[in-house]
Design brief:
The protein is mainly α. It contains five helices and no strands. It starts with 15 loop residues before the first helix and ends with a helix.
Length: 99
């Protein structure tokens, strides 16, 4: 996969400070992409995914179930929302939470 950083343009008129600042921005974007790729290859979740809504994910998964299974998923979802609210995120799902 190839990523292009098009938001940062180095111009001949840039001062040394501007070039250094742009280089820092590019290096940060590059480091973030490398972390994201490493996380994907090791099965780890990115910070963005950790902050995603578990409730929305669960609802989408429930839609894919057969009618009989969907009833169980809907009941489970209602129970989770009753106990933990409608804003449960993946980051909130810990070993303790599962127990």
């Amino acid at each position: 996969m190839r990523e292009v950083i098009s938001d940062v343009e180095f111009l001949p008129t840039d001062t040394k400070e501007q070039r250094e600042q742009k280089k820092r921005i590019v290096d940060k974007i590059k480091a973030d992409l490398e972390i994201e790729l490493a996380n994907k290859s090791t099965g780890l979740l990115s910070r963005e995914l950790k902050m995603a809504s578990f409730i929305n994910f669960f609802k989408e998964q429930a839609k894919k179930k057969s009618p009989n299974t969907k009833v169980a998923w809907d009941n489970t979802l209602n129970y989770i929302i009753e106990l933990h609210g409608n804003k449960l995120k993946f980051v909130d799902i810990t070993e303790n939470w599962l127990e």
